[in-house]
Amino acid sequence: MHDKTYQQSEVDLAYKILQDSGKAMYFRDLIGKVLETKGNPIHSPAHTMAEIHTQINMDSRFIHTGKNNWGLSEWVPQRSNRYAEDTSIAHVESKLRRERLLEEIQQDYAAATTESDENEEPS
Asked: Which one of 18, 21, 81, 93 is at 20 to 30 Å from 112 when CA atoms are compared?
């Protein structure tokens, strides 16, 4: 197991650890577990922790759940689909309003043109 674990990146190990635990973890505990699992000797623990924390922060598979806890974004219901749905509905409604407004303007223009034609005296 250590050979395969040794080859995995720290961020991939963090993902696996969270996946296995099934719940968010405090970032120091998560990174500590990554380092423990990796088994590499580290020269600067603070630098290594900061580096792994940065990798986790930049990886879209992870989500900050508050109070320095990290979980997996796959655990959170995706809002983007709902947003896309809402935007699509809003777009259609907006288009219908514009079409109705255009129809009303055309009707008003046609009525105004008809009235002005009727009011003109024949030459």
From this structure: 93
Residue range 46-71, pLDDT digits in tens: 888 889 999 999 999 999 998 989 99
Q: In angstroms, what is the C-alpha Rg of the chain? A: 31
The DSSP output letter for 121 is: P
Which run of H or of E encompasses 58? helix 45-58
Residue with token string 């995995």: 8
List Cβ<8 Å contacts ≥24 apart for 91-95.
none
Give the whole-angstrom CA distance, residue 38 versus residue 6: 5
Interval 95-102 mean pLDDT: 72
- Six-digit token pair at 106? 């055309």
Would you list the DSSP string of 7-20? HS-HHHHHHHHHHH
For 57, half-sphere exposure in the C-beta direction (CA atoms, 13 angstrom radius) is 9
Q: Give the C-alpha separation, 37 to 35, whole Å.
A: 5
Identify the pLDDT of residue 1: 47
